[in-house]
UniProtKB/TrEMBL annotation:
<dbReference type="GO" id="GO:0008643">
    <property type="term" value="P:carbohydrate transport"/>
</dbReference>
<dbReference type="InterPro" id="IPR003439">
    <property type="entry name" value="ABC_transporter-like_ATP-bd"/>
</dbReference>
<protein>
    <submittedName>
        <fullName>Sugar ABC transporter ATP-binding protein</fullName>
    </submittedName>
</protein>
<dbReference type="GO" id="GO:0016887">
    <property type="term" value="F:ATP hydrolysis activity"/>
</dbReference>
<dbReference type="GO" id="GO:0005524">
    <property type="term" value="F:ATP binding"/>
</dbReference>
<dbReference type="InterPro" id="IPR003593">
    <property type="entry name" value="AAA+_ATPase"/>
</dbReference>
<keyword id="KW-0547">Nucleotide-binding</keyword>
<dbReference type="Pfam" id="PF17912">
    <property type="entry name" value="OB_MalK"/>
</dbReference>
<dbReference type="InterPro" id="IPR047641">
    <property type="entry name" value="ABC_transpr_MalK/UgpC-like"/>
</dbReference>
<dbReference type="InterPro" id="IPR017871">
    <property type="entry name" value="ABC_transporter-like_CS"/>
</dbReference>
<dbReference type="InterPro" id="IPR040582">
    <property type="entry name" value="OB_MalK-like"/>
</dbReference>
<dbReference type="GO" id="GO:0055052">
    <property type="term" value="C:ATP-binding cassette (ABC) transporter complex, substrate-binding subunit-containing"/>
</dbReference>
<keyword id="KW-0472">Membrane</keyword>
<keyword id="KW-0813">Transport</keyword>
<dbReference type="InterPro" id="IPR027417">
    <property type="entry name" value="P-loop_NTPase"/>
</dbReference>
<dbReference type="InterPro" id="IPR015855">
    <property type="entry name" value="ABC_transpr_MalK-like"/>
</dbReference>
<keyword id="KW-0067">ATP-binding</keyword>
């Protein structure tokens, strides 16, 4: 096991800056997930740690050792890719043993290691099969097994579940988490799937356009996103963003007004006529109940009249998309499973204003 430290890593490809100013330190044994939209630089960071890519500038340490000039095979890291490329002519056992054989590990030790790895990944009954006799999920487990068998200091995983179907992906994700708890190997995991990021990570690093947007524990990033990009990236359906103009009467969104909670008036120097982006998550919007308004008072409840455009009943919950008069925004709303709404209905919704986020409309930074 080893900590991994990046200091101001930058990578340019000709005139494209793929990543810039990337600094973080992963403590021994932690599971960190790099997330962000396509092209944000996740794989470039992972490949730089692996030694498959050379940083244009900056320093990389594994343990306390500077790795910039150390070739990939001497870094003691194991990388698993999305296309896990097993050796087709070898059995599962031979695939798992391959890295150890290359390193001339004692045959008896290899046998023991293969048995242990096979047990922890439930591959014992498959050891004599060839890759083409395995399902996708089984092949992926063998690829993981091949990486684990080497007992690397650091595990690097690049979208390892993206070739699996939904059910298998959920199962393998849970297995991966359990495996990490057992082995405690420092892990860096790349994905664009926010569910994988939220469920697997000790810490998430959110990237956009080659730069770090925020680093933190999943729940904390979800609750306190640094900016609009992070806020809308984590959460499904994503957080709603409404452009609003502040007036003395409230936030003006299209043709309707949302009350401004006292705490926001106190904390922010809001100026009439100024524009803000308001953020509210789908789970913090409900169908209007006058009773709540009486209990919580006017100022914590924002009311919006909308027209329902899409209804998605999912059993446990119902997702709707609704349009706001005078605005092109479609509002994502998460309602209970037994709610009956139809396309075309006009609904009065209430926003839980205790859960309101406010972003600077120019920089996108969260200001409340
Ligand atoms: P994805 O999720 O689509 O795999 P990513 O977040 O992993 O994307 P990277 O593959 O790290 O993104 O790429 C970051 C940026 O660097 C992109 O703009 C990409 O086009 C560019 N890039 C990556 N590798 C090269 C290369 N070998 N030559 C030129 N540009 C590259």
């Amino acid at each position: 096991m080893a900590k991994v430290r990046l200091e101001e890593i930058k990578r340019r490809f000709n005139n494209v800056t793929a990543i810039e100013d990337i600094s973080f330190e992963i403590p021994d044994g932690e599971f960190w997930v790099l997330v962000g939209p396509s092209g944000c630089g996740k794989s470039t960071i992972l490949r730089t740690i692996a030694g498959l890519e050379t940083a244009t500038s900056g320093k990389l340490f594994i343990g306390d050792r500077l790795m910039n000039n150390i070739p990939a095979r001497q870094r003691d890291v194991a990388m698993v890719f999305q296309n896990y490329a097993l050796y087709p002519h070898m059995t599962v056992a031979e695939n798992i043993a391959f890295g150890l054989q290359m390193r001339k590990v004692d045959a008896k030790l290899i046998q023991e290691r293969v048995a242990t790895v096979a047990r922890s990944l439930s591959l014992e009954h498959l050891l004599d099969r060839k890759p083409k006799q395995l399902s996708g999920g089984q092949q992926q487990r063998v690829a993981l097994g091949r990486a684990i068998a080497r007992e690397p200091q650091v595990f690097l995983l690049d979208e390892p579940l993206s070739n699996l179907d939904a059910q298998l992906r959920d199962d393998t994700r849970a297995e991966l988490k359990q495996l990490h708890q057992e082995l405690g190997i420092t892990t860096v995991y790349v994905t664009h799937d926010q569910v994988e990021a939220m469920t697997l990570a000790d810490k998430i690093v959110v990237l956009n356009r080659g730069r770090i947007q925020q680093i933190g524990e999943p729940q904390s990033i979800y609750a306190f996103p640094a900016n609009q990009m992070v806020a809308t990236f984590l959460g499904n359906p994503p957080m709603n963003i409404l452009s609003a103009k502040y007036t003395n009467d409230g936030f003006d969104v299209g043709e309707q007004l949302i009350a401004v909670p006292e705490i926001i008036r106190e904390k922010l120097q809001l100026r009439p006529g100024q524009n803000y982006d308001l953020g509210i998550r789908p789970e913090h919007i409900s169908i209007n109940e006058p009773q709540r308004r009486r209990e919580h008072g006017e100022e914590e409840v924002g009311e919006l009249v909308v027209e329902v455009k899409v209804v998605e009943p999912l059993g446990r919950e119902t997702l709707i998309r609704a349009s706001l008069p005078g605005s092109t925004v479609l509002l994502n709303v998460q309602l209970g499973g037994n709610v009956r709404v139809n396309v075309g209905d006009r609904l009065s919704l209430q926003l839980d204003l205790t859960q309101l986020f406010i972003f600077d409309s120019i920089t996108g930074d969260r200001i409340f």
